[in-house]
Automatic annotation (TrEMBL):
It comes from the Bacteria. Dimerizes in the presence of ATP but not ADP; ATP-binding is required for double-stranded (ds)DNA-binding. Interacts with DnaA. Residues 3-178 form the AAA domain. This is Sporulation initiation inhibitor protein Soj. Gene3D superfamilies: P-loop containing nucleotide triphosphate hydrolases. The gene is soj_1. Belongs to the ParA family. It comes from Dorea formicigenerans.
Amino acid sequence: MGRIIAVANQKGGVGKTTTSINLAACLAEKGKKVLAVDMDPQGNLTSGLGVDKDSVEKSIYELIIGEVDIKEVINKEVLENLDIIPTSIDLSAAEIELIGVDDKEYILRNAIDQVKDQYDFVIIDCPPSLSMLTINAMTTADSVIVPIQCEYYALEGLSQLIHTVELVKDRLNSKLEIEGVVFTMYDARTNLSLQVVENVKDNLQQNIYKTIIPRNIRLAEAPSYGLPINKYDPKSTGAESYMRLADEVIEREE
Ligand SMILES: Nc1ncnc2c1ncn2[C@@H]1O[C@H](COP(=O)(O)OP(=O)(O)OP(=O)(O)O)[C@@H](O)[C@H]1O
Ligand SMILES: [Mg+2]
């Protein structure tokens, strides 16, 4: 049965989407059946996996507002072993359209429940907010991966995020846990990155992945080709590190 992981941090630009795309693609390359879900109206996961977001007719938006069935929104095999549910900019209005709708926190879970047996992993990329969309992702997930950028203020907002996970666990999804924190955009040339890692390790009582994702230009370039890093430049340090992260995620599963 599929393990469902939400990639969340309400801080913008910390590497959620880069981690979602490349973790999903590396798990798929290792032979796992993966569904990647784009819960962010910005659509960076959708375009980063080569799906033209402007030509998507049935997206997660239509699913969330109840217009279509989940099977209609899954794009099969965008890469071997990798299916995706694309998003659309319309998703930004979903929160308002859901006002007054019963059980709106469970919409994504009820949909994913119908297909999760077909996958080893479901990876959900969250928007940079603690909105209803993120709550839906956390209500669906078994666990949350939190990317942390190796920059000043890395810890800022983390207590709110952890509090949100605890609230969701208490009220909506008792199985939810924080699977781990992953450091991103580590720059070995500066002391700052090292200091941030040490500081977070000292102050955060959470699992931390051994794999640290380096700052690597190839990771930033790959989305404009619609490719994950393991297809764009498999020998890059970015690809090697996301392959190792995939190994760690699989180990935790076992
Ligand atoms: N390890 C890395 N090395 C170099 N560039 C990176 C790395 N990780 C992410 N980036 C770049 O940093 C920017 C932000 O990354 P990303 O989009 O993954 O963050 P995000 O948390 O999903 O952002 P948002 O909050 O807007 O959804 C992007 O331009 C991305 O290409
Ligand atoms: Mg993103």
